[in-house]
């Protein structure tokens, strides 16, 4: 997904002086993330100009027009994106193809593989979020996931849970120890951003997604149930859809809490998001299904007490009830109980911050994770 910050952060940790990388967009956004550098990004069409990013495809004048044209082209010619990808593979003859995400990217790559026939480059598939966990029970998706895992050479993911699922489905290729898809953190640089003890902070962060997976409205209902504790706090609801923004404003009007709503159309820069977690006593994220939520890891790194739905892989990072609390994503009463504890127990949030920082130093150092990312390509492709 060429407009994804996770893609930009993944590529940012690779040694592009040694490798030549090209990006093929698996979704019809027509957009390239502004942090993409030293790569060529291929769209069906794209808005121009985008300073500093090499793009290929049909140039148009406006971002909305690019998205509209891409979507229209795919509806009129359903196989167009796969045929374009197949043609690019035929021309570039890459050493490796890396599908970042399954339902769009890996399915698309498999369609291109069928068009090409014969010999295919080494193929790595990376599970984003809950690609397998959320969809392997659906008959249509189960068939496609099994097909992808039967054809690819290597599989990477963020969770031991997803590694087990891939093996159960039948994957027999190369695997690697799970680690975050978005890379690690410059811990030395951000250490000073988390200097304040969580018990003295007066911020609350809530992930504002609500849809097929996100449950931000449940989070806001739970906050309403602990309204007696919210005086003097500032609530930040980020990545908020319009209905979530409206519900947050209603909550602020009925409680003594300041409100900051950041719409999904205006995402914060990564450093600013980290600083927000560093100013928060607790961070709340609810979802029906997830991998290692990036916002959860940001909270863990920055000392904000994480309250996370137990449908994610957060249990592989925290001790429930000690360094965070796992909650059901659709039970506002259970979430409210976790919020009440985190808002009233200073020792809990301060001790959790220390424990989570120790975990971050062991598992989230950017240098070490970049080395692990590079090692994947070296092992799959071989040294040249």
Descriptive labels:
single chain; 384 residues; alpha/beta; Rossmann fold; six-stranded parallel beta sheet; 15 helices; 13 strands; globular
Description:
The structure is a single chain. The protein has about 375 residues and is α/β, with parallel strands linked by helices. The chain has 2 domains: about 5-185 and about 365-380, Rossmann fold (3-Layer(aba) Sandwich); about 185-365, 3-Layer(aba) Sandwich (Rossmann fold). It has 15 helices and 13 strands. β4 (about 95-100), α4 (about 100-115) and β5 form a beta-alpha-beta unit. α3 (about 80-90) crosses α4, α9 packs across α13 (about 330-345) and α11 crosses α12 (about 295-300).
In sequence order, what are the helices and strands, one letter per element?
HEEEHHEHEHHEHEHEHEHEHEHEEHHH
CATH topology of the largest domain: Rossmann fold
Number of domains: 2
The spatial strand order of the largest sheet comes to: 10-9-8-11-12-13
Measured by DSSP, the beta-strand proportion falls in: 15-25%
**Number of helices in the DSSP assignment:** 15
The beta-strand count equals 13
Amino- and carboxy-terminal Cα gap: 28 Å
Q: Which outline best applies?
A: globular
**Main sheet, how many strands, which sense, barrel?**
6 strands, parallel
The portion of residues assigned to helices is 40-55%
Give the uncertain stretches in residue-range form. none
Please state the second-level CATH architecture of the largest domain.
Answer: 3-Layer(aba) Sandwich
Quaternary class: single chain
Give the C-alpha Rg: 22 Å
CATH class of the largest domain: Alpha Beta
User: What's the average pLDDT?
Assistant: 91
Content-based structural category? alpha/beta
């Amino acid at each position: 997904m060429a407009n994804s910050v996770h893609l930009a952060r993944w590529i940012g940790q690779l040694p592009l002086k040694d490798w030549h990388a090209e990006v093929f967009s698996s979704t019809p956004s027509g957009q390239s993330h502004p942090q993409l550098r030293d790569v060529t990004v291929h769209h069906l069409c794209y808005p121009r100009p985008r300073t500093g990013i090499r793009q290929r495809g049909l140039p148009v004048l406006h971002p909305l027009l690019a998205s509209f044209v891409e979507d229209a082209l795919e509806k009129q010619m359903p196989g167009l994106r796969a045929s374009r990808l197949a043609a690019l593979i035929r021309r570039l003859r890459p050493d490796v193809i890396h599908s970042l995400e399954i339902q769009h990217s890996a399915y698309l790559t498999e369609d291109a593989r069928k068009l090409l026939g014969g010999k295919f480059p080494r193929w790595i598939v990376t599970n984003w979020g809950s690609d397998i966990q959320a969809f392997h029970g659906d008959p249509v998706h189960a068939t496609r996931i099994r097909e992808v895992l039967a054809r690819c050479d290597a599989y990477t993911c963020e969770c031991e849970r997803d590694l087990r699922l891939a093996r159960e489905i039948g994957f027999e290729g190369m695997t690697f120890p799970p680690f975050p898809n978005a890379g690690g953190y410059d811990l030395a640089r951000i250490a000073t951003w988390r200097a304040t003890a969580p018990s003295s902070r007066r911020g609350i962060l809530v992930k504002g997604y609500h849809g097929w997976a996100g449950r931000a409205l449940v989070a806001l209902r739970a906050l309403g149930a602990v309204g007696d504790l919210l005086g003097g706090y500032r609530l930040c609801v980020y990545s908020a859809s319009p209905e979530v923004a409206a519900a947050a404003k209603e909550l602020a009007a009925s409680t003594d809490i300041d409100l900051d709503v950041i719409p999904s159309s205006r995402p914060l820069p990564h450093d600013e998001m980290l600083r927000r977690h560093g100013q928060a006593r607790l961070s709340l994220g609810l979802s029906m299904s997830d991998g290692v939520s990036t916002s959860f890891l940001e909270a863990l790194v920055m000392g904000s007490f994480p309250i996370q739905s137990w449908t994610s892989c957060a249990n592989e990072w925290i001790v429930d009830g000690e360094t965070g609390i796992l909650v059901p994503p659709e039970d506002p009463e259970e979430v409210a109980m976790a919020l009440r504890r985190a808002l009233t127990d200073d020792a809990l949030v301060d001790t959790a911050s220390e424990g989570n920082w120790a975990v971050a130093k062991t598992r989230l150092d950017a240098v070490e994770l970049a080395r692990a990312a590079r090692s994947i390509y070296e092992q799959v492709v071989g040294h040249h």
